[in-house]
């Protein structure tokens, strides 16, 4: 049975040291990314951001990004810091004669999470996810909400003061990321998922109308031929959970039914997590973490509809 939980109120701002920034600069920066990522960057406007994935030829997500234009010839990609170096190296392999240069811009940038009333004060009535506006000397990207609280990612130069507001407890931001249901790919789960296994097609992370990119055929086939057997779900567990941990269903004690994509401590105790697992396993039966004899997982309500259900 899918349950929901009462949890802490999110309100305030917090620096985000677990994220890094790749700068893509040059007159062909957008077209280069158009050929590499799951989203459309050629049509990326100054009032928009993009959720996107970088995939292998087999459609497996190497990394995920929030991308935004900083200038006509400059795009910033915000990603998990533990994947920045290998992702930068691999993306750079495809530049060839393209007029684009990729660099690690993490030290030059400031990243701030904004939640609750602090977000509302900057945006007014909450705009739609992945919209972007310039505030406080930087760009504020609207993220998916968590527990009905608006959230945003502020990206600016390291020299900027950034948005003002009450401080948010650092441990609440990772939890809010989980509760939003939008997973950020990190090192323990790189190459573990096709985008739809994390519901990326339902939260604006895949454009099925754009041209080719690595893994595009696999991603499209999963969507239009009904071959996808796994989805992203929210769960709660009394015991600690971590990215890469296996999940089991009572119907099979030997083979895992899924993997924890992202997890964080819950303010009410225990851990909340985004789990990618077989759709059939979410229909009922005991779910456990780590092994068939591991702690029980409680299935929670996703905060958005899947594209199939819209």
Key structural traits:
globular, 310 residues, single chain, alpha+beta, Gyrase A, domain 2, 33% strand, five-stranded antiparallel beta sheet, six-stranded antiparallel beta barrel
Could you please describe the fold and organization of this structure?
The chain has about 300 residues and is an alpha+beta fold. The chain has 5 helices and 16 strands. The protein has helices at about 30-35, 80-90, 115-125, 170-180, 215-225, and strands at about 10-15, 20-25, 50-55, 60-70, 75-80, 100-105, 110-115, 130-135, 140-145, 150-155, 230-235, 245-250, 260-265, 270-280, 285-290, 295-300. The strands form 3 sheets. The chain has a 6-stranded antiparallel barrel. It has a 5-stranded antiparallel sheet with strand order 1-7-10-9-8. A 5-stranded antiparallel sheet has the order 3-4-5-2-6. A hairpin with a 6-residue loop joins strand 15 (about 285-290) and strand 16 (about 295-300). It is globular.
